[in-house]
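# step 3/5: fold
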Amino acid sequence: MSETQAQLPNRTLSFTTWLLVILTIMGLLLMGTVSQAQTKPQDGIWRGTFALAGNQESPFTFELKGSTAWLLNGTERFELKGVSQRGDSLFVPVDIYDAILAAKVETGKTLSGVFKRLNSTPVDAGIPFKAEFGKRYRFVEKPAAATVSLHGKWDVTMGNGNKTVGVFTQSGSKVTGTFLSTTGDYRFFEGSVQGDAFELSAFSGSSPSLIKGKITGNELTADIINVRGSQSIKGTRNAQAALPDAYTLTKIKEGTSFGFTFPDAFTGKHVSLNDPKYKGKVVIVTILGSWCPNCLDETSFLAPWYRANKQKGVEIIGLAFERKNDPVFAKTRLEALKARFGVDYDILFAGIADKKYASSVLPALSEVLSFPTTIYVNRQGEVAKIHTGYSGPATGQYYEEFVREFNADVNQLLNETPSKALIGRSEK
């Protein structure tokens, strides 16, 4: 066969076959052109809205810049790395919560998609959202004047009877703040007051929430709404509003000693509080979960604190209770926690994320009431005090007070003589 003959088409192929070949080639060329010309979302500030129960919309704001995004709530900028685009699909991983924002790029200035949790059973259908570029406001661009104030402290009861303290700052119509509870705060809310009504929303990667209510004199009524439903809120303004002392809620059972042995979350090697590494040192034991927003707040404080103070003779051990009682799953989730905050103290996998289970494997405690719970162990291996819950940066002065008290308590334990076993409750 000559070279010329080899270049000629095989005339035994049908017309239909050749047509399919030509269409396939054209399709590949067209896909290449579309891929090269894909629309990219604009870098900058975006305003999104989640679709919640009862046809309610919960607004959130975020910033995009290349492969990084930030969720914006009050003064918080919650960083999300690894943003990617494939065709007209944009993916914003929320690794720390094992979740993702997946959106279609409608135009360079509009997105529509879902926020969904990964590795969930049953499979998470996701929470729909849409977003527009360049809008910086939360609820309305030009809110009407406020005729009431949410500023200050409030005694608040959630619908399930949970007693909380509302702490808010208002400037004009803009409001930021949170609710403190015995198990931790509700993190950063942001919103506005118009007339006698207020709206607040929050989304920092865990789950979106919305609060809508009214103020009459020194009373407020509202609903807190998420994707599953809503519950009522009632509150009374009270400058002296306070929760029970966080150091009195969890105790050591009389006649028992505190101890544990669990596998290291990353190596599987069993670690005990009685190991030589911890002998004669002050040890902070924190009961946590990678899924727990308040635990993340505590970890963001403890990780740099440990790096700065470990040479003083102090250790930290994290006892992690995860969504699945599976060491492989736990390792993956805790690797994300470790990487995000630069954790270099020991984290042990203690089992399933359940308070009753946690209480059963830590039988010296009266009860595990909260993730996180922080246990201070002195140089003699005795529990000096236990702090239930955590008041994070969203609580302002409460967080600052905790940091001061934490440092004072640890320093006191470090400076103890061997005859001193326990530290007293410091005064606020």
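# step 4/5: annotate
The mean pLDDT is 90.
# step 5/5: archive (pending)
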